[in-house]
Amino acid sequence: MTDTSGTPRTSRKPIHLAAHFPGVNNTTVWTASPQALGSQIDFASFTHLAQTAERGLFDFFFLAEGLRLREHQGRVHDLDVLGRPEAITVLSALAAVTERLGLAATVNATFNEPYELARRLASLDHLSGGRAAWNVVTSSDAFTGENFRRGGFLDRADRYTRAAEFVATARELWDSWPPGAERARAGAFAHHGRHFDIEGHFSVERGPQGHPVVIQAGDSSEGREFAAATADVVFTRHGTLEAGRRFYADVKGRLAAHGRRPADLKIMPGVTFVLGDTAAEAQEKAAEIRHQQISPQTALLTLEQIWGVDLSRYDPDGPLPDIEPDYDAQLSQGRVRHADPRAVVASWRALAEEKGLSIRQTVIEATGRQSFIGTPAAVAEEMDTFVQTDAADGFILVPHLTPGGLDDFVEQVVPLLQERGSFRTRYTGSTLRAHLGLAQPS
User: Fold this and answer.
1) Residue 358 marked ligand-binding
2) Using an 8 Å Cβ cutoff, are 143 and 68 in contact?
3) What tens digit of pLDDT does each residue of 301-360 get?
4) In this structure, what is the dihedral angle of CA atoms 104, 67, 269, 133, given to the nearest 10 degrees?
5) Per-residue model confidence (pLDDT) at position 297
6) Which Pfam families has this protein been placed in (predicted)?
7) What is the mean pLDDT of the chain?
8) Residue 155 belongs to domain with CATH number
9) Cys-Cys with 152: which of 12, 96, 145, 250 at CB 3.0–4.6 Å?
10) Within this chain, do residues 114 and 242 fall inside the same structural domain, yes or no?
11) Which pLDDT value is given to residue 4?
12) Do 359 and 374 have their domain in common?
């Protein structure tokens, strides 16, 4: 049930929803479906997904970004979509064709500078009427750094210390225009720190929501601590109810040490979904999607990234290779490596032996991504259970089709969440902070 304001009654936690534009990798499915005929570059694709999310009353639209095309064995990874326009540029254009939807850009804190990025984000916040967000990511990857003058300069151990100072510095710049400030001193700033030593006058007035919303994705202990100290939203990947509850309790439990309350940070795992008229139909569709995402070529390249050797002579429909992996080799550049490849190899071999799986079947089984599979009613109930039992505050939906992958969810699941009293029936605020229930910075 909802009250007359359009927000869920306080007896139930409200579910927060966001839309992730499908990624530039093999998990995006290209088929003859009318829902999958859009380009990754055409503005019409971004417009369709963003306007669908706004029709569904989502909190925000989320764009990932990479600073270099990934490579495999020295060649551009041809299973990836090659390139995408810069995120803030796309979101600035979307601000003109949406009214309430938050606009979140992924921008690297390692290869950017606070003044320049704070200015771009403040500009987006003004253009959108207070809907800007920044997903803070870091990199210690010298491969990506080759695109920059100081490529490879940052030790891995320093990436979060630089990111924390980066965010703090950006907030100092946004705060340099206090409400009612006299023109003579508006925008004056001075920051002298380990990573940044800057002073001058910030050229953009404080935005409608004070600070753009800060999003952070990181599951390591240092990433969780950074989120507890700094972020407004955590983008995580925990898929099970139990794992979600553990992560939720851990991160929320860190907030008090930083003078923050549980409500100050929203935890929103990235999830996928498959809908069907029956549970069996949904499972069948999910299996079909996984076979489309993991082609024979994809299966071999995925295995090569773990085994560290060329496996092109192996049949993807045959058994796992019996050769010993080269754990020190790195055939792929620009991808996050498994923390413990030996453990991955051992678990995949055990899985394949137990179930009699081929290479392709093993990769499909081991890398399955669908989070919620079932009828619209079952998916709505399961999502609601995650939120009401403190496994999440909401979800960032990652559809597998461009640009129509969100259509069915908005038409079939959102109304059921509204009937349960867990999701808004209309926007009641104009800024992203209002959608998320976050306080305005003083």
Assistant:
1) no
2) yes
3) 889 888 988 999 999 999 999 998 888 777 666 565 656 888 999 999 999 999 999 999
4) -20
5) 87
6) Bac_luciferase
7) 88
8) 3.20.20.30
9) 145
10) yes
11) 41
12) no
Q: What is the mean pLDDT of residues 379-395?
A: 97
220 in a labelled binding site: yes
User: Is residue 214 included in any domain, yes or no?
Assistant: yes
43-49, long-range: CB < 8 A, 24+ apart: 43/90, 43/93, 44/403, 45/21, 45/402, 45/403, 46/21, 46/90, 46/93, 46/94, 46/403, 47/94, 47/97, 48/403, 48/404, 49/19, 49/21, 49/399, 49/402, 49/403, 49/405, 49/406
- CA dist 113 and 314 (Å) reads 46
Q: What are the E-state strand segments in 194-251?
A: 197-201, 213-216, 233-236
Q: Which residue has the tokens 């959102």?
A: 414
Q: Does 111 share its domain with 206?
A: yes
DSSP code at position 328: T
| Whether residues 304 and 247 fall in one domain | no
Q: Is the pLDDT of residue 9 over 50?
A: no
CB atoms within 10 A of CB 128: 28
Tell me which of 326, 343, 366 is where a domain ends: 366
Q: Is there a single domain that holds both residue 222 and residue 356?
A: no
pLDDT over 50 (residue 183): yes
Cα separation, 157 vs 266, in Å, equals 26
**Ligand-binding site membership of 106 (annotated):** yes
Assess whether 127 and 111 both reside in one domain. Answer: yes
Local structure of residue 21 (DSSP, 8 states): P
Distance CA 76, CA 332 (A): 10
| pLDDT beyond 70 at 82 | no
Alpha-carbon distance values, 390 to 88, 111, 145, 296, 387 (Å): 32, 35, 39, 39, 5
Last-in-domain residue among 348, 366, 384 = 366
